[in-house]
Amino acid sequence: MQTIEFNVNGRRVSGACADRTHLGDFLRDTHRLTGTHLGCEHGVCGACTVLLDDKPVRSCITFAAACQGADIVTVEGYQDDAVMADLRAAFNQHHALQCGFCTPGMLATARDIVLRLPDADDATIRHELSGNLCRCTGYMGIVAAIRSVLDARRAAAGVIARHAAGAALAEAPFTGFAVADEALGTLPHLAANTGAEAERSADRKGWSRIEGSFTVPYALDAVWAFMADLPAVAGCLPGAVLTEMEGEKVRGHIAIKFGPMSARFDGAARLQRDDANKRGVLKGAGQDSLSNSKAAGDIAYQLKALAAHDTEVAVDLQYSLQGPLAQFSRSGLVRDFVRRMIADFGKSVARRMDPTLSDAERNQAVRLNPVAVFFGVLWERVKRWFGAG
Ligand code: FES
Ligand code: FES
To answer: Which helix (H) or strand (E) holds 332?
Structure first.
């Protein structure tokens, strides 16, 4: 047991909790904030969503102990929130709730959409809401309510609203991701340095972005040649399996296990390389058949010689998750996890390129343990919370 202290709805609260107590239980059982609803308790339905330091998180998979010193807002704490006042009125007007079980989580996500994506259209709203499930299937009203708030804010800001009030939702059908070749789209332009930089630095609406880097003790040209070998590169990613390869295009699957979440994304990717500037982009899309979540992402990488036998690989990952796993994409824990995976990927590359190792020893690179990585990331966070990191 430990004593934790944080702000809930503007009030300082403290209490004892077990290390494994999740935030949802702590709020409901210790502070009687029962507006936070618990549905699946596996991070899938979104009913338990609250704001943690102004970002929506799933309280059923957030340890209460991890919230030391944080600001938390539950559905009971939005009295002075102007956006939430508009959303509440719009949810009433558009009949955006039936039993109301999903509503606290829907409202938290809706507020985040309104504040973060002021130009969101219907397709974007649906995409962003895809991590919140409504068992009454009231999505039409929910989307209409959020759109009406966005339209009103755009009109108030002097911007001509894109959508006439009451326009049929069918005008902007939700398409989702496909993994057909066409879905991989036009590859980012890589020829000119400035163009590529501009493209990579422009964050895409609704996408998450994580940057990281690693260094390998080999010459630039050798690392560049290795990175062209897609089966070898896939061998450095735990859980990745290539099933087809044709030129620059590959198909395959990758298994991911992160705490309570496990998924297997089947998909396709295409690699474009710029030999002159030693940069490349792997652009892919895939689907997890278990949760029915969809993902699309670009992994851009840039090589830089640090010394004759030292090369830095800078990685710029931009991705979008849609479906029950959508809200995982923006949590700090996931960001730490991905950065750790990038570092471990770098160690695997160095190991695979080591000419002094046998094939069997090189292949050990793929046996990284995602469970160990997950707990390693958690441990790093715990050390940071207690000022030891
Ligand atoms: S109860 Fe937390 S996501 Fe379902
Ligand atoms: S209104 Fe009943 S679950 Fe959404």
So the answer is: helix 332-353
